[in-house]
Amino acid sequence: MTRKLPPLTTLPAFDAAARHLSFTKAAGELNVTHGAISRAVRNLEEVLGLRLFERGTRSVRLTPEGAAYSAEIAAALDRVGIATMAATASRSTGVLNVSTSDGFAGRWLVPRLHKFHRANTGIDVRLSTSGTLSDFIRDGIDLAIRYGDGNYEKVVSELLMDEDVSPVCSPELLNGSHPLRGPEDLKYHRLIHDNFRIGWQTWLQAAGLYGIDHTAGVKFESAAYAVEAAVQGEGVLLGRSALVAADIAADRLIRPFDVALKSRWSYYVVYPEGALRHRKVRAFRDWLFSEVRAG
Description:
D-Maltodextrin-Binding Protein, domain 2, 295 residues, 41% helix, 5-stranded mixed beta sheet, 10 helices
C-alpha cells in the first residue's frame, strides 16, 4: 500500500515551531532562518489543505487541527529517532556519548572514569559538558546525568543521588590570625561563589547570620573552578556534597562546621526509552549506580 506522506523535510520545522510556538525559536533550534521555517510550514499547510497556525503580529498559536497534527507528528518523529539510534548502534558500539555539567564531570565523574574504562575496555566514553540541555536524538547523546527535579519529558529518569550544601575550605583556614572555628568567623574570610541555585545569602540566613556581606568575595561560573579555589585556600565555598566528597575524603577540604542545607534538586540518570537494550548504555548506567553505592 502506498503511504500518503507530506513533504518529509517540512516536518522538523513544523514540529519545532509547534513546540516553541515561535518560528524564531524553531529557527534557532534547527539552525536555519526564520524564513526557512515559515516557508516549510506554509508548504506543509498547502499540501494538507489545512491551516496549522493562527499567525499574530508577534506570535503564533496552533489551530485545533494543528494541535492534533502536532501531537501525532511529534510521536512519529520520536519513533523515527529511536529507530535510527537502534539501527546505528551496531556501528558505534565502542563510543558512548554522555552529557553532564562541567562541575559534575570535573569533580565527580572524571576522577572515577578510569575504573569504568578498566572494566569495559571496548567502550570509549565521550563527555559533553555544554551548559545547555542536550537533545538525545539531535545531539547524538546516549545517556545524560542531569541536575534537577527529575521531570523530563519522553525519557527515562532515575534518581542517582541527592545533594546538600555546606561551607567547605582548606584545612589551612583553621589556623592563622582569624581561625575559622564557627559560622560567625566567616566575616574574616573571603566567600567563594559559583553559579549554584543555593547561594550564600540563603545559607547565612539559615545559620542565623545577618552581619556578613553575602555578595562579597570571588565568583566562578564553573563549579569545578570554585572547588579548586577552595582547595587552594582562596576562601570558603558553599560546597555541594557530590562535588566536594573526593576532596574531603583526601583531606584537601574540610567542613569547618556542620550547618548543611538539603538541596531541592538531585542528580538523575536520564536516557531515551529502550536505550538499555544497548550494552554500552546499560554498562555505564549500572556502573554509575555502583559508584554511588560504594561512596
